[in-house]
Amino acid sequence: MPFGVLADLLLVVHATFVVFVLAGGVLALRWPRAAWVHLPAALYGAAIEFAGFICPLTPLEKAWRRAAGGSDYAGGFIEHYVTAALYPSGLTRPVQVALGLLVLVVNAWVYWTVWHRQRSSRRPRAQCAQTSPEDLR
Length: 137
Description:
Elements lengths: L2 H21 L1 H6 L4 H17 L5 H11 L9 H10 L6 H30 L15
Helix pairs in contact: 1-3, 1-4, 3-6
């Protein structure tokens, strides 16, 4: 498979991961067990932003682009694809911290909602009247 195609596929995987990190907690609203996959991913994504690191997928994508005869880009994935569209001046440290905080705030709200729903569903509900199978006939 040509390296250009691999780089493009990795770009799609990387973008999907970024969206999952930011909004994947919404899956836990429907499927609470999705939290077991999403929480570590969200913590990893926030940690990358807070620490100022570059995701390991970025250098791999760049290497594949060079191997395909193209040129790579300066900076990281977020800076090149996301920040370039939102913040033309480039990725700064405060923007990185803001992105990390955004990940935490969005996911804190989603998981609070999941926790609240599960807690509410476990409470015994008062029944107005007991219905037996004979009453339904």
